Amino acid sequence: MVKLNKEEKKSKILTNLFKNIIISMILVEFANEGCGFVDGIMVSRFLGADAIAAQGIAYPYFSLLGIFSGMLVTGMQSLCTSYIGAGKKEELNSVFSITCLIGGLFSILISMAIFLFPGIISSALGKLSGNSALIDLVQQYLKGVAIGTPGLLFVAIFSPLVHIDGDQICARCAVMSIFISDVIGDYLAGVLHAGIFGMGLATSISNYIGMAVLMMHFLRKSCSFHFTLRFHFECNVIRTIFGKGLPKATKRIANTIRPIILNGLTLSIGASTAMAALSVRNNLNNIMDIFGSGLVSATLLMVSILYEEQNVTGLRQITRQAVRYIFVGIGFITLIIFAAAPILARFYIKDDPQVCSMAATAIRFMAINLPINALNEVYVSFLQGTGRYRGVNILNFCSRFVYIVACAFIMSKVWGVNGIWAAFPVSSILLFATIVIFCLIKNRTYRPSAEIIFSLPDDFGNLKENTFECTITTMDEVCETAERTGNFCREHGIDNRRAYLTDLCILEMAGNIVQHGFPLNKKKHSVDIRVTISDNKELTLRVRDDCPLFDVKARGELWRKKEEDPGSCIGIRLVMSISSNLVYITTLGTNNLIVTI
């Protein structure tokens, strides 16, 4: 079994790339959860405890949307990334167009259902019989947010594509426009006495504003994605989209069912007072969890890319870095929230000391759960990124539903509503223990460690002795690396000709990057070199750099056509002529050249 042992020199490119992706993913999560957070604050301050209880009861509606949108968007993103790497523009646009059509149709249908069957839907979200005032508030809020369902879904579709296309400015402008417009809209709804419907409507308007900002990217000629009705329809494409997005759907399904059950349990034990405290806890958790969710999403993306490359060293580096961020970053957030719980509770609830005290206790248990849950989620994202979907589906359903609901029912019998609050961290601890015990049994050992838990299949990647990896920052290191690579190839049975050609490729490609790519801006750059030799002696050279984008293959093809200047860019032409296969890929703002010799 390939395990996560100590790696050699860390890749600065991967480290910086991971940090940047975490920031971007946190902003995406902020766009997804920020409006709900703003609504929770404004509803509590303008409309009171019953209104925030109604918002909490209506929350599973967003989880229901998340089941569909999460599965659709995750599958779309996976396929689009593959097609971009293969240069299949027609297939790329087909997937984009199909996703938009399916998403638009679904969002319109579910919006219509809210207005046609408000009683059935509101009753399904919680035990509301006999409380006509609470039923009316839930229905009003649902109608307000239902108007903006298409906007919400298209923001979810467009956001990852804008990030893949490298337009970080547009993505961040969309996030800020959604948040700012929702704050303004909710405040106006409060002062104009528009009620909870007005709060929901403000959220809808902000989603459409965010959608409009993101659409500006797709109007650019340089955009990789273009909507068209002239696409080649294949049922297999739709099956692939939803198949790759199934783990996300499993998580969202659990997130939809669990609140409905816990809402009913909370109402039966503590009535609307406890439900208001739970709503405060959930609302604050949604916004505080964006840091963990952003880290988990970034980990999944990086692990998926590195697993596709069969880069064992990169996987070790990213998983260790993710765990470090959990203990340092999320651990610090936990301490702050735990200490400030009474203040945060009073920020939501001003005039009800009982609800305020109950909410403070719930917030403290929520804070304890943040780092434990993030650690479990990083492990799940590692499994998903390495293609072990069955384990992902099982863990998602256990962590998001089975463990929490079971703990809540058992512990509430002893401690009442406090048992419900405590069920969240206790269930996370039990899940972590389950993961560790399973890994120990599977690996037939009794000593838990990161290399046991984050392990890879036996047949994954090349063994360490068949892989050469190095980071280059200067021209002197280019020459040194070329010499070391040649010796490495010869020591592993590669003939002198191919070993020499590998040296030549590194001298030309890495040398060009250091000489011409590094000076293009004032940032510190580096080049990652990775050479792998398979069992059948196939030699693959991977060159990754964080300089401005430069399509080596396209530029070489262009210069090759210029017969009047046969001597231009002779280095790139030489590499193209000696390689049996050459692929250029831009991944998250980095240049990636894959040469098979």
Describe the structure.
- By secondary structure, the protein is mainly α.
- Helices cover 74% and strands 6% of the residues.
- It contains 22 helices and five strands.
- The chain has a five-stranded antiparallel β-sheet with strand order 1-2-3-5-4.
- A hairpin with a 2-residue loop joins strand 4 and strand 5.
- Helix 7 packs parallel to helix 9 and helix 11 packs across helix 16.
- The longest helix has 43 residues.
- The protein is globular and about 85 Å long.
What key attributes describe this structure?
single chain, 597 residues, mainly alpha, five-stranded antiparallel sheet, 5 strands, disordered N terminus
- Compressed to H and E, one letter per element, the order equals HHHHHHHHHHHHHHHHHHEHHEEHHEE
* Proportion of residues in β-strands: 5-15%
Figure out the total of helices.
22
Residue-averaged pLDDT:
79
Radius of gyration: 26 Å
Largest sheet: 5 strands, antiparallel
- Overall 3D geometry? globular
First-to-last CA distance: 28 Å
What is the helical fraction, as a range of percent?
Answer: over 70%
